[in-house]
Structures
1.
Amino acid sequence: MALKRFGVSLEDNVLDSLDQYVEENGFANRSQAIRFLIEKNVAEKKWQCNHIVAGTIIIMYDQEKKEIYTKMTEIERIYNDVILSSSQYYINQSFCLHIVTVMGTAYRLTELSDRLTTIKGIKHGKLVMSRAD
């Protein structure tokens, strides 16, 4: 399969983490590690899409950027059929940990997670789910 090149911009600490990941896991280079992580992520999202699953979406964001919370709330209203609860924990002066407890099809939860975690300004986001049927 032909390879295509593209550029990636990362903060210094993220690049340092990537380099550490490359070294710890024996990858030949950054590209190989990034390719592995992307393939792993895609495979995890495709698993058992029609099964009922339960889980959490964990999001870390800068609470001073009010538009992030507003956008999350708008998205959560659209997906209220799969949201069981939503909690905010203020970690320090700047950061807020937002936890959404969810249950529904893996496809629907992945869709919600993707919409929430790709909001501009989100520092970290992750969906963790387990079969519930």
2.
Amino acid sequence: MASKSNTNGAVAVSLPSREGNTNTEPPTDDDRTLIDPDVIRDIVIGLSDGLTVPFALAAGLSSLGTSRLVVAGGIAELIAGAISMGIGGFLASSAERDHYHYMRRHISARVQRSCVGEMEREVCAVLVPVGVDEKACQAVTKCLRDAEFDPEVSANGSSSDEEAQLLRWKDQVGLTPFLLKFGEGMEEISIRRVYSSALTIGLGYLVGGIIPLIPYFFVPQAHVALVYSCIVTGIVLLIFGAVKSRVTGAGQGVGGYIWGAVSTLLVGGTAAAAAFALVAWLEDS
């Protein structure tokens, strides 16, 4: 990345072109393509709860009566749970987005009123632990301050597409974005991400929750359907755990995939066994 000064003394940063770039990364044995961790998090939250909670509820209701009762209670819980999980994901992402904007305003105000020495100390606090010396930190601070207070951008009132793009770019450079991202560890969540998170969690819960109920649609005896439900859900939990280890990068080799599958099965099985035992105990008492 190269930088040069304009006539007003501000620093203009030019990004390197991607044309002609070649992939020089050395080949590795691990050829996995990892999915966005935020998407994986939402899928895991939705599917894991969907495979566990309705399964535990169905197991508990199986000790009370017929499959019809289990299906009615399971579907009611499934719909309510999917809506609740989706709304919960929406509110959580919205709260995180609001907190980001609050911190951005707070840090921007602090940058505006702080002296150069104070900003150098904050930049050093971020860069020195990763091996950057103090002299380089001072140079970085100067570049970031020049980008933060670029007079050309702040004084230009044009509404052309080029100027609008320049203003959007300015929001991503300078001391404020630097301290937000590397000092506070925060990145902005887009409004699209807020809605997609809610939809992903809700649909994940719905898809995961319908699986344990499938046998109850075809087998009238609840205790018999419970056996099939345990088998089907157990297989799905094993597959889900292994796939989760694969796409998140947690699994290293066959042992990692097996541990991911078994641990996921243990969580779902423990919840279902606890629900079944509790309902059976209440019925006997």
